[in-house]
Structures are given as structure tokens and as C-alpha cells.
Amino acid sequence: MAESAVSGRSAAEGLRSYVRLAWTWCRAVAQYPVSLALLTAAQAAAMAAELAAVTFAFGHAGRMAGFGVSEAVLVYGLAALAFSLADFLLGSVEQLGEHIRKGSFDAMLIRPVSPLIQLATDEFSPRRLGKVVPSAAALCWALAVLDIDWTAQRVLMLPLLIASGTVICSSIWVIGACVQFFVIDAREVANSVTYGGQALTEYPLAVYGRAVATAVTFTVPLAFVSWQPALFLLGLPDPFGLPGWLRYAPPAVAALMWAAAAAVWRSGLRHYRSTGS
């Protein structure tokens, strides 16, 4: 009882610290409104280009691997929203290697706030909403035009699936960043998993084949970000014959991934021996 109360207070304090630090950066960025508007528009344009590529591919082909434009946009929306929210909340952790090189990570370690929270909020900017808003709009459009049987179960599961996808993406972001505790110049390797994973999950896994689908289900669980949630919402069987219960697994996978990310982060901190380690 006492331990759970302490844990709850720590989580609440961490959340308050996150909000305060993020708000401080937002106030600083707001001093340059034109720059903020242009950067936000650029982020939105990049997301629009990705969505255009998806709609062009499926619109030109008619149906691909059994998926039409609206179903493909559903998959894209689920993936893009999860990764955009993860980037919005924790994307700055990818700068860990730069902080280690500069020695600024040492300063984070002696402050009375979790270094992970400090990393996540470093240079926090609302410009990243330029990714979140178009992704959410694409998902809402797909949900509106698709003939989905909105049972109570699907209505209740939808926000949980989005939250689970965001946690999975955030966990992958943290794990990728932690590689830089051991290899300082490994940011590009981490980016290949995060941004590469986003590009992979924005298309139905049916277009890649069984080997890829199996790998991103049981190795790096990206299938639980958009593919399995899309199959659940559409009421479709898995084209590769994978178990039907997998579509209900995203919350459990998210919990396991977050626990893994926390363990990797703690391991990285134990390994860290100040600048140059």
C-alpha cells in the first residue's frame, strides 16, 4: 500500500515536472510566432505528402492485398497518429548522444527532476502538432467513411488502441535513444527503427508478405501500432492466418514495451560514466 502510494506520488510529480518544463519551452518558442507558424506548416506539409503517397498508391491500384484507399488511410492514420504523438511527447530523447558529447547530460543528472523528463522536454515545441493534427484528421476521415460495425466493444477499444500504439512507439523511441549510452554516434541507427518503423506501419502489412508481418509481430511489435488495430476495427481475419487474439493484445504489448524501455533506460544510466563513457 505504502509503495503504491509513493509510486503514485512520484508519477504525479513527474507529470507536473514534464508539463512545467514543456510549457517553459513553449513560452520561449512563442516569442517567434512567424517562425513557429512556418515550422508547423512545414511539418503538416510533410505529413500531407506521406498521406498523398498512400492514397495515390492505393487509388491507382484500386485494391492492393485486399485493401482499398479508405482502409489504407485507416492504417496510415493509426500509425501516423501514434508515431506523431510519440514524437510530440518524447521525440527529443533522440538527442541523448548530443547531450552526452556536450556534457549537458551530466547537468541533467544532478537536477531534482528525472533526466528522462528533461530529455523529453528539451526544446519542446508545439510545431510538432503539425504532425499530430493531420494524422488525427486522416484517421477521423477513414473512420467516418468506412462501413465499420460500431459495437460497444469497438467504441471502447478505439481510444485504448490509439493510446497503446502511442506507448509502443514511445517505448521504441526511448529504447532506440538508449543505444547512444553505449555507442555515442548511434542516432542514425535509432532513427532507422523509429522513422523507418513509422514508414513501414503506414501501409497494410499484407502488401509486404508473411515474413515481414511475422517479424513486426513477434520481434519488433510494430504490428500492434496499426495493423492489428485496423483488422480489429474492420472485422477482418488476419490474411496470414495469425491468431485472432493478437488484435486484442496491443494494451498488453504496450505495457511490456514500456517496462522494457524502463529497464533499458535504467541499464543505460548504470553504464553511463560521464562524458566520454
TrEMBL record:
It comes from the Bacteria. Keywords: Membrane, Transmembrane, Transmembrane helix. The chain crosses the membrane at residues 36-61, 73-93, 132-152, 158-184, 205-225, 245-265. This is ABC transporter permease. It comes from Nocardiopsis mangrovi. The lineage of its organism: Bacteria, Bacillati, Actinomycetota, Actinomycetes, Streptosporangiales.
